[in-house]
Amino acid sequence: MVSPRHVRGEPGRSRLPDVRPLDRFSSIKIKLGVLVAATVTLASFITWLGLSKHLGPTRTLPLAIVISLILTQILARGMTSPLREMTRAAQSMASGDYSVRVRATSNDEVGQLGHAFNSMASDLGQADRFRRELVANVSHELRTPVTALQAQLENIVDGVDDADPATMEAALAQTERLGRLVTYLLDLSRLEAGDAPLEISRVRLADFLREAADGAQLVGAAKHLRFPVVVEPPGLTVPADPERLHQVLANLLQNAVRHSPADDEVRIEAARVGDDVRIDVVDNGPGIAADQRQHVFERFVRGNSPAATGTTSTGGTGLGLAIVRWAVELHGGRIEVADTEAGCTMRVWLPAAGAPPTGEIALTTL
User: Fold this and answer.
1) Kind of pairing, strands 5-6 and 100-101?
2) Which domains does the chain have, with CATH numbers?
3) pLDDT tens per residue, range 68-87
4) In this predicted structure, what is the pLDDT of residue 114?
5) In the predicted model, is pLDDT for residue 27 greater than 60?
6) What is the DSSP letter of 10?
7) Which of 7, 127, 132, 298 has its CA 20 to 30 A from that of 217?
């Protein structure tokens, strides 16, 4: 990671010292007043001194003016240095260097502008770094299934493999993986752009979570997982978009299935807590390290077990939880990794009160 660097004066520019004695003042208007008062006082003193020494006005006045201008240039240079630094920094940022920072030492309007500029440079640097990482990650994620699918089809065309059901099933699996990734990217793009209007209905959680669990049962059939559902009170409802809420539960359950040991269970619990409804998806897998829990909902970040290194992935595309976070936030809720001694608990908080219900709905589609 490149450390921020401060913009310095360039060769060939003015050699006046960059002194900032006026930084103690909190307003540029006060600084200008002090600057005018100082130069006028200095000019008056030099004029009085010259006349008292009988130098005459022809020599005293030019000397007073020159010395006053020098003082003005020195003080004004310190006041406007951050502006010149910002100009040079903006030129560097235009060429792709976001590590530049300005030296903002005052508390006036120029200093506040300098701090805002540094904050903007930091945000732009992070955005540019994320953009490059996003392109690299998307390229990798797309290339993996495409390469596998291409190899399988080439083997069939070359006669190395037969187009038997097993080979075609493997090709279909790669195609489905590619389709899921593209769907994730489109969904995430729509969510971030705000182009995902919600159709709020009163969802009865007991039926809704049971149907979500039945869908996850098929995904986890190879591991012989169980999916108990506990809702308190049994008639608990929540205002939500059933399609988006199903997307949230499906992604959380898929992650739980992926990380759960065989012949185990993934619990789905829902309860009313104050003005919110809490939905937990609990598995007994390796869990997520405490220092990674705030990052697992970022795009292309994959959760690791507490013993994993920073580069060891537990699988998945790294997009599902980012979509979950956006979908939950669209409902005015939040999602977190609960602090548990063992396993992993994904906790969703949704407001219990919302738009007027248009009907009590359990998931029957998707």
Assistant:
1) parallel
2) 5-124 (no CATH), 135-192 (1.10.287.130), 201-361 (3.30.565.10)
3) 788 777 777 767 777 778 88
4) 80
5) yes
6) P
7) 298
